Amino acid sequence: MTTTAQQLAAIKVIPVIAIDRAEDIIPLGKALFDNGLPAAEITFRSDAAVDAIRLLREAQPEMLIGAGTILNIEQAIAAKEAGATFVVSPGFNPKTVKACQEIGIDIIPGVNNPSAVEAAIEMGITTLKFFPAEASGGINMVKSLLGPYGQIQFMPTGGITSKNIKQYLAIDRVLACGGTWMVDKSMINEGRWDEIGRLAREAADLVS
Asked: So what's the pLDDT on residue 141?
């Protein structure tokens, strides 16, 4: 059985998607999947997130689908019921982590300091989102945090672009990065699927 962390490490760049119309996820998912990015983190920043996860799971059952910006137990349950494989939170909330462990869905909580890393380790969580990556010290901070904690691995997100992703991925125990540049909201709202597909292909080639 391939773990979520192993799947993330195989794909390396995870499109972080904010979507206004759930039905847009079908052509969007196809553009990503067909161009070498079989993953999506659909954020709960919009009311369309749950329906979008459900639609994508039906349309692209092989995709690795995560739910982002999960802030509470109710959202975690909704994400799992819709078909998400894992959830991602901006920060480390022990209640949300415990709830995810109880309902059996992987959670990648956000951290950017040693105290949060240690709180995560205490709860058995070792795959962590480093967020907001660039604003929290970027590559130097990632290296600094990985140093004393040999059991953790990071998925940096926030300020990751095609220009700096390879530098992050070159760090041992950075398994993947979350990015939005290939799934910009304006492109989704305007239905620019060919452009999204081109950017997805460039991103996949860049990290392969």
From this structure: 98
